[in-house]
Amino acid sequence: MNPRRDELVPSVALQTSNMHHLSSLLPAFSRLTLRLALLIAALTFGHARLSAQRIIGELESNTDQDMLQGDTIDADEKKPKLFVPVDVRSWTIHPVFGTRTEVDVDTLRHNFQNLDHNEGPTGHYNTLSNAGSPRLSRLFFERSTEEYIFLSPFDMFNTPIETFRFYNTKSPYMNLTYHWAGDRENGDDNFRALFTNNIGSRFNFGGIFHYLYGKGYYDHQSTSFMNGTGFASYTGDRYDLHFRYTHNFMKLSENGGISDDAYITNPESLDRSYRAHDIPTRLTKTWNRQESDFIDLNHRYHIGFVRADSDSIRGAHDRFVPVTSVFHRMQIRSTRRNFRSYENPVGTFYARQYMPGDSAQVRDRLFEMRNNVGLSLREGFNKYAVAGLSAYIGFWHRSYDMPDSVATADGSAGTLTRTRFKLNNILLGGEIIRTQGNWINYTVNGEYVIGGDDAGEWSADATAELNVPVLGDTATLALSARLSHACPSTYYDTYHSKYAWWDRENSPEDISQLSATLTIPHTRTELSVALANHKGYAYLSDEGTAITNAAGAVTGYTHLITSHQYDKNIQVISATLKQDFQLGPVHLNNEITYQQSSQQDILPLPKLNLYHNLYLDFRLARVLSCQIGADLTFFTKYHAEDYSPATGLFHLQNAANRMEIGGYPLISAYANFHLKRTRFYVAYYHINQSEGRSFWAPHYPMNPKGLRFGISWNFYN
Predict the structure, then answer these.
(1) Which of 57, 268, 423, 492 has an alpha carbon 20 to 30 Å from 632's alpha carbon atom?
(2) Is 301 in a helix, a strand, or coil?
(3) What is residue 313's predicted lDDT score, i.e. its pLDDT?
(4) β-pairing, 624-635 with 608-620?
(5) Is 413 exposed, middle or buried (0-12, 13-18, 19+ CB in 10 A)?
(6) Other Cβ atoms closer than 10 A to 462
């Protein structure tokens, strides 16, 4: 499982009013010195044992030795020195069964300079360019699915429970990370803080604070996001518990894209030169805001026996062997979206309006609650239990709330009302798992809705991992398969807002996916192949009409977003090769992805997506690790999905007014360093800026060239 970065907050009880206040203050504060940022962060995390002065002192000294416990040391050093252990472990859990998977703590320096990029560390995403803006992966098999589809474009900020990290530490641990780009007029700031601490060897608690602010290089494009998370875990012999509460607040200004692509593709045709901030945009007074609260609780009680055991460290001792586990999983999610528009561009940007009034404040809400209770027969409690077996029963409740209206006699928008409806399901699920094999390990799980509004829906997943001797080393072959028969998100059936409105009934979507990944450590090679067949693929498209002037000439097209379902089969094939080369200090990392969609008009994908990274890796004075180089992102031309401010989602372009993006390389240079407990970088983004198809999405240009900086500290005790 790929590790994800997690961050922290000192208090999870963040009120909306406080968020607005802090959102206005942090852009200014973040432009102060980094020392002042550290002081504020240290004071915020008052329960940590470090004072602000000690944090700054450690940063200045950059010592890699364990810090002394206590705040003072006698001058004559008569007192013995007590060293603080710096061992930190982290893991993720299965969202249903609660089983743990160890992952590395995020201290890697490789590609640290790209972790803040909205297009992803290796440039897989189409985005609106600004930090935190909505995005969509160009790689089909990376795309996520959500019942609340408005969360999917913000997967960089929302961490699902299956990739959230829990910790166990031998001393209090804090990580502070800060990324910066641009200046007061157009830059962005991204600050994360993580604190975690153990009480005893079993119980851990911590928090995450994450603040992201992007002014944006193009006008009316700012973002302001805030995340607060509290988490706790207990890992005992007979009882395990994992708990997380997260509150997200996300606000972004919508500009609808630039008014004319010629500002980027052919600037010489204009009467004067334009800076990015001076280019006119299509919207000026439109905002989207999302708030969400997530509660995840997963706990298990183990039943087993005590067995006499011995080892070289502890000698003879008794060891508890779990045989059966009773588990319970509860998940509560409340997500709200608020679309605000204080302009009414019907006829110039939108095709029509569905709600009365010249301005709009549209709210929709989804509340979800899921409970599962089950029983597991544990793997490995004796030589005959070569696999684990689990089964559970669950209940899933969803409650929807969105605008509605009563039309007038002439069919125009009339009285505004609300529509509310609920969906309830009872489901059965299970899993067969083997993780302790020497040559092969596998997992098979499935879920079936036995009653309720979605009765008859089902899904099944299987994974297997084989260890194969290759070239004197052990290669790993990972196989996976997925089958499902389920309706797409309810929002593809019903959605009501100011400028987008549909009511339809979609059929279940049948999905079949197969993938295989071969990893050969000896040659630094990873090859992945994936196949998919989708029948009943749900999607959004733009069916706006032409805008004409007095002479009848077409000057543009309006936006009218509608929902559709393709009732035939769509096949997708993908192959990705990751190959790294090294010659002394010279490294060349390569990632090449080929994709093909059988219906490019319904599911457009670029045929090639490339990432290359050429750098020198060396040490200075045997303590400073350095990576100095440049990387390149490129994808071939295709009719990429457009973006709709009215829905906050990506959709197919208007068939009468499509544009191609791609065929343009983006090159950035960087110097990435690691000194003791500190990582930092300086990068020059988009050094090859020039006229052409430099777009991440239709009508949304790439950010212009500029300097970027980032730093990350680890603190113990």
Answers:
(1) 268
(2) strand
(3) 67
(4) antiparallel
(5) middle
(6) 16
pLDDT of residue 196: 96
Nearest one of 217, 194, 225 to 275, comparing CA atoms: 217
2 domain residue, yes or no: no
700 lies in a domain?
A: yes
In a domain, 207, yes or no: yes
Length of the chain: 717
CA distance 386 to 380: 6
Provide the 10 A C-beta neighbour count for residue 560: 19
Report pLDDT for 69.
34
Residue 611 CB coordination number (10 Å) = 22
Separation between Cα atoms, residue 501 and residue 411, nearest integer Å: 14
Q: In Å, how far are 296, 301, 369, 393 from 241, measured between CA atoms?
A: 11, 9, 19, 19
Q: Please give, one letter per residue, the 3-state secondary structure of 8-39.
A: ECCCCCCCHHHHHHHHHHHHHHHCCCHHHHHH
pLDDT along the chain (717 residues), means of 10: 35 37 39 38 39 38 34 42 72 93 81 92 95 96 91 92 94 94 87 96 96 93 96 95 97 94 87 87 94 96 86 74 93 95 90 80 93 92 80 97 71 73 96 88 96 96 90 88 96 94 94 96 94 96 91 89 96 98 96 97 97 96 93 97 96 94 96 93 94 89 94 90
- The rounded distance, in Å, linking the Cα atoms of 354 and 569 is 33
Q: Is residue 26 part of a domain?
A: yes
Q: And the tokens for 498?
A: 């100011």
Q: What separation in angstroms does the CA of 533 have from each of 489, 500, 508?
A: 18, 29, 14
In this prediction, residue 47 carries a pLDDT of: 39
What is the helix (H) or strand (E) element at residue 41, kind and residue range? Answer: helix 34-44
| Secondary structure of residue 183 in the 3-state scheme | coil
Instruction: Say if CB 66 and CB 81 are below 8 A apart.
Output: no
Question: For position 205, what pLDDT does the model report?
Answer: 97
Instruction: Say which CATH number the domain at 304 has.
Output: 2.40.170.20
DSSP state letters, 427-463: EEEEEEEE---SSEEEEEEEEEEEEETTTT-EEEEEE
The total number of structural domains in the chain stands at 1
Token code pair at residue 420 = 């509310």
Widest pairwise Cα distance in the chain: 94
pLDDT at residue 473, as a whole number: 79
Closest by CA position to 393, among listed 411, 378, 375: 375
Q: Give yes or no for a contact between 428 and 391, defined as CB atoms under 8 angstroms apart.
A: yes
Cβ–Cβ under 8 Å, residues 687 and 649: no
pLDDT at 487: 95
Looking from the CA of 372 toward its CB, the CA atoms found within 13 Å total 27
Q: Which two tokens stand for residue 657?
A: 């007014």
Contacts (Cβ under 8 Å, ≥6 apart) of 571: 531, 532, 533, 597, 598
DSSP, res 252: E
* Dist CA 200 CA 320 (whole Å): 19
